[in-house]
Design goal:
Elements: E1 15-17, E2 34-35, E3 45-48, E4 64-67, E5 72-78, E6 82-88, E7 93-99, H1 101-106, H2 108-118, E8 127-130, E9 140-142, H3 143-146, E10 157-159, E11 164-167, H4 169-179, E12 184-187, H5 202-208, E13 216-222
Parallel strand pairs: 2-5, 3-4, 8-12
Antiparallel strand pairs: 1-13, 4-7, 5-13, 6-7, 6-8, 9-11, 10-11
């Protein structure tokens, strides 16, 4: 059964955004261990030069990874933040980024692209897919949140109830990828908060006073 989400923009590169059912049907890079980092809502990126660079206990704190190492599978976890998978199919360089609002404002997506360029990628050839994340209609923020953004970012906020706004995270992520001169961007346009049968959502679980441990995992691999 195939239940994970894919982006046609990434073509044949092994990748997938999981659902509550996991990565059912994902057949890319079987038996290859997944590389992960300790995600801390930072703008830090780690370059990977092999399939098993560290143990689970040694995972560095970062929110994105890049590699040009064949046989490497990168994985990040999210529950409302935007997972972004990237590839330059010509240079054979991949990346995976966890872009919550803090990381996005801090430059995690630009830093990921820059790290890919450092491994030989070309910005116009990079393809980036924004996976399932919270949609603007369900992302209410207050004045303190709004003030963390510049007036130039006003397009990503719509008016909400008094003293509140609705923030468009996937559009903002796409904007930051555009600032990084990424050649191609795809938003799969799936709302984690609004689809409770298919996706975990930290914000939805908090609002409902339900357990908040559920996470999606997003993976991308570079075949040998």
């Amino acid at each position: 059964m195939t239940d994970h989400v894919q982006s046609s923009l990434l073509g044949s590169i092994p990748h997938g955004f999981s659902t509550k059912a996991g990565l059912g049907g994902f057949a890319g890079l079987p038996a290859v261990p997944m590389v992960r980092v300790q995600q801390v809502h930072s703008a830090d990126v780690v370059a990977i030069d092999g399939a098993e660079p560290w143990t689970a206990e040694q995972q560095p704190e970062a929110d994105a990874m890049v590699t040009a190492a064949p046989g490497c599978l990168l994985g990040i976890v999210t529950a409302d933040c935007a997972p972004v998978l990237l590839v330059d199919p010509k240079a054979r360089v991949i990346g995976a980024a966890h872009a919550g609002w803090r990381g996005a404002v801090g430059g995690v997506l630009e830093n990921t692209v820059e790290a890919m360029v450092g491994l030989g990628a070309k910005r116009p050839d990079i393809r980036a897919a924004i996976g399932p994340c919270i949609a603007q209609a369900n992302y209410e923020v207050d004045a303190a949140f709004r003030h963390r953004f510049s007036e130039a970012d006003a397009a990503f906020f719509s008016n909400g109830r008094s003293g509140h706004w609705q923030f468009d995270l996937p559009a903002y992520a796409a904007h930051r990828l555009g600032l990084a001169k990424v050649g191609h961007v795809d938003d799969v346009a799936l709302d984690t908060y609004g689809n409770d049968t298919r996706f975990y959502s930290y914000r939805r679980a908090t609002h409902r006073k339900e357990p908040t441990e559920g996470r999606q995992i997003s993976v991308i691999g570079l075949p040998a």
